[in-house]
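Hi team,

Filling in the usual template for the complex we talked about on Friday. All components are listed, including any nucleic acid strands or ligand strings, so the model treats them as one assembly.

SUBMITTER: L.P.
PURPOSE: interface mapping
COMPONENTS: three
RESIDUES: 1277
SEQUENCES:
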Amino acid sequence: MLANHYAISQQVTYRGMVWLLAAQLVVMLPFAFYLPIWLIPVMLISSYWRFRVLKGESAQPKLFVRLLVVALGIAGVLLSGMTLLSLDTMVSLLLLGFAFKSLEAVRQRDALVVVFIGFFLVAISFLFSQSIPAGAYGVISLIILTGALIANQQSPAQQISRYATRSSLKMASMMLFQCLPLMVLVFIFMPRFSPLWSIPSFESHAKTGITDSMAPGDIANLSKSDELAFRASFEGRVPQSDELYWRGLVLNNFDGKSWQQLPDEYDTSELKHQLLYNMAWNDARIEIQGDPFKYEVIYEKTGQPWLFTLTPTTKVDGKTIKFGDYRVMSRGDIQSPFMMNAVSYPDSKRDLELSDYARNLALQLPASGDEKTREFARVLRESSLSNADYVEKVLNRFTDQSYFYTLRPPLLGDKDTIDKFLFETQKGFCSHYSGSFVFMMRAAGIPARIVVGYLGGEWSPDGEYLSVRQYDAHAWAEVWLEGEGWRRVDPTSRVAPSRVEGGLEAAVEYEGSFLEGNPFSARNFKWLDGIRKKMDSIQYGWRRWILGYDSESQAGLLKSVLDKMSSIPLAALVGALFLGIFLLWFVMLGLGRRQNYEAYEHQLYRKFCKRLEKHGVLREPQQTPYEFALIASKKLPSRAAAIQDFSSLYQQLCYVPRNGAGRDEPHQKMRRLLREIS
Amino acid sequence: MGLMVIIVLLFLLGINFQNSLVYIVCFWLIALLVINIFYTYRNLSGLTIKAISAEPCFAGEKMVLELEVTRPVKQRKSAIYFGWKNEDLVELNLQEEQSTRIKLSHSSDKRGRFTPPRIDVFTRFPTGLNTAWSYASMDIQGIVYPEPIEKSQHSDKQSLDDETSEGKEIAGGASDFAGTREYQAGDSPKHIHWGQYAKTGDLYTKSFVDYESHDLWLDWQSLNISGTESRLSHLSAMILAFHEAQKQFGLRIPGKEILPDKGEAHKVRCLTALALYGLPQAEASYVG
Amino acid sequence: MTQSAQELINLASSQLNHVILGKSNQVRLALTALLAGGHLLLEDLPGMGKTTLAHGLSNVFGLDYKRVQFTSDLLPADVVGATVFDAKTSEFNFRAGPIFSDIFLADELNRATPRAQSALLEAMEERQVSIDGESHHLPDPFFVIATQNPQSQSGTFPLPESQLDRFLLRVSLGYPDQAAERELLKGRHGRGSLEAMQCCISRDQLRAIQARVPKIKMTDALLDYVQRLVGQTREEELALLGLSPRGSMALVRSAQSWALIQGRDHVLPEDVQAVFVAVAGHRIVGRRETQGNQLARHILNTVDVVGGVRV
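RESULT (copied from the run log):
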């Protein structure tokens, strides 16, 4: 490159360094929330140190000192209990490097490196949070980083200017803004690939949402959170509120206190293998009936593989697996918003034949405990006509007896929890009811299991999509009946029908325990509802179109735009769009415009001269307008008047001082006279 | 270059984490890199560069080329570099002002016409991510005078016969004392010979003389130095010496005679004649 | 006064045209220099009416006029005056030289030694004379008309470029045309009629008119034109020495003065053109031994009047 032949002043200027440090602080700030807290003071101290060097108050640290500092930083990261190869460690090290790099940034090239790492870190911060505020903050960071780039290119002379800071900021914003169309275009059309290798996970990422086991109190905790779980939008048939049972996990095993998915403890990948082996999906087991729900779901990041669908889901796309117990799981843990399309036939019959494995699972009970309930179930079954009748009788018992739906149930202790609930406290919520119901079914020899997921959700104001939040978490039951297959039974609905109809808020309205312990949730302020719902729909757009934009959305979008276009017109379209953007820039930056340095009246006068030249009157350069008018009007008597008028107007405009009179009117007159002359 | 690496890394990161925002940062940087080309190009485009002068110099000195750089009315320019490789580099900013002048220097090695090589014009503004460059060839020629080297002379032939070596005396001058005369009204009191007044009681005025210039000729033929270049160098040195002494002199070299005169313009004329001695004539740019 | 300024100037120039025949342009340039408060350099052979012009000017304005013939033995004291020893009082008294006059004609300036020349030129620039540590102010309308023989004559000390710059305008009268010369020969005009001239502008009126010159307005377009002209004189290819900033200021002031004489309150390109050769001719030095006047005319012919940057 040409510039390399010259020794351009390579030093980072004072202002350039101030910009760098500012950009550095801005970039590092969001990491304060995710990474070991001691990193913050270390980074601040290193910035302050550099600032002192800048001010001339300290000396530039020597190589030895720098190495020592770096070594200490690395040791610190390793000692703070992070695994060597986890992403957190790497990000921490990168941050330290970023902080220390500016310490030794003396030359322009170092400054560039600092800014580049800054860009990289901005992107990294999105691995931790992808919320709208995080996005907005990222944009600000990008602007400041670009501003730092610009400030480093400005010459010292320019930086003295009062407007230096503002101008580099303005220019940075302008450039990034003008980048938008190209960025969007690339974003839309750049092919999306599947991950190339498995990625180290974040240790610091807490798993949220529903867990893979259920003790009686668990779901009550979720009910205290209004965090979003997922959003769904439907195409065609829209479900009623009592159809919105979002199946997530199936709990089969009861150990006397809590429910697990399978008898033995598995981690999720083992669980998948187990399920695939024993309960693989089989289309033949479903007898499809009725109209399907077609829907699209965007799941929030949970760090877990559970996906929540309507039962039974026959078709899903993306990196997902269907299982024989009608649940759907993601192939990996959900580390960033995940979008999926699915089709469900809610009226279908499932598993008219039950496999032995499934039957055994669905009849499992602990060897002992809860004797009273077992006895009660046996008696009740004997007095019932059929299994279906028995189910009905058990459910009726919840209605007839004084059972209460509450989020503040009394404690049940460690043993005979079901006995205690059914015969003593009779107060509880979905997990109590579904657990005891399944227990009673199994005690009577009827295959039954607990399904955990979400119930209901909140429709956006325009009914476009449904938001399901953590407090919508729910547990219900399934029983297997001869000739009917699996039937969904929700004992909670018998106790608190409003839980199904109006959601949790309605169900616990009387006791005010909704979102207990989260008093600042916007959900608690009715008057904020409008704003909250609007925010929610913005959030939805963000999730749906930005975070959830993947290869399938891309394909869908292209299909909807191009319909049947083949790849050649597509390439042409993309090419044309790129070209269009370049043209747009060309125009925006004023590159296409021919630079005319002359005032308009002079341009008009030149036109005038050209016209007269065609008529054979050539103006010599030294001829003044007055002289030339005399000569020209003598040669062209027919146009003399116009020529004289034009010249005198021009002379007036140019040489007669005016007191702020406008130029537009004389310009118009001149144009008119010009037409007359030709 | 560094940014490219970052972009590739970000793309991989985006792929592996399936993170749209990482993609966005990545693509935004790509767009920035592309639009930056437009910006740097714009920072360079539209400049009008006019050669103002190529200051004459002596061989071995630096030839200074003065340029006037004008920016388009609506575009401010920052950090544009003008330079000759291994010679000079000048940074230029045009913010408030419409145009400015810069000086670039280039070493000259031999006398004659000097055509400055093309000038590298480049800029890295605004971001330093890439460079826009261009070359400017200036249609201007500088004159390089022969290096002034005085050679020892064995003959005095070149000092031409004249009344005195200093020239004709002019009475009433002020440079050199020439005697005393009787006081006349109007004589400056500074020039009154007070010693004489004390002795005689009469006022005497000290009179001074100036010397009228006589025409010195620097003549090629009368030099007994061998070699064209060393003659030219010697003449060059003599011209400088005479000019310094404010003497009136003429120059005769084969094919050219410059009448005696003095002053800056005369010096330039003489030195130019020396510089262009034996070189093909450049065509006249106008007929006066 | 404002109304009559124009009339006064017209009256003055018509009277002068009666005395100096067929030289209305030069007369107007002389007036231009006088009104602009600058000095005039006449470059001509002897006998062309330089003295008549100077005399005529002094008569018209009712100013006093002195003339000094510059020779090689002229002392500075002969021009600016000297301190004289009065034997009776034993005191030194300052005796003002001929320069203490409103209009001073320095004839054949280039015959004098550089010392005498610079004494005059310093007085012109400073408008005061310092002798033996005392400063003496020159009269307020102070106008020097210097004449110079053409350069090539021998035995002269040509004025250096820096000193020529002190003259606002350089004009040459040139030979009269046939008709004018005939009139002259008939003897009805010329120096004889000098006495018949009337003073038509008083000293105060002259000062008032001089004060109006800088107020003549100039637009950006006009200044663009001036700058184009000036820029061209600095063009390397053409000139060794271009117009200095003092030179371009002189151009503007002369153009203003000329416009005032034309009775306008603003300057037109015509005004600039009218004075350009007189202003620039002696200030620029051509690259190829061309006369400054020729070069100035060449520049005037090649620079476009029309055009100007957007404001």
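MY TAKE: Residues 213-366+447-534 of chain A form one domain. Chain A is about 50% helix and 15% strand.

Thanks, L.
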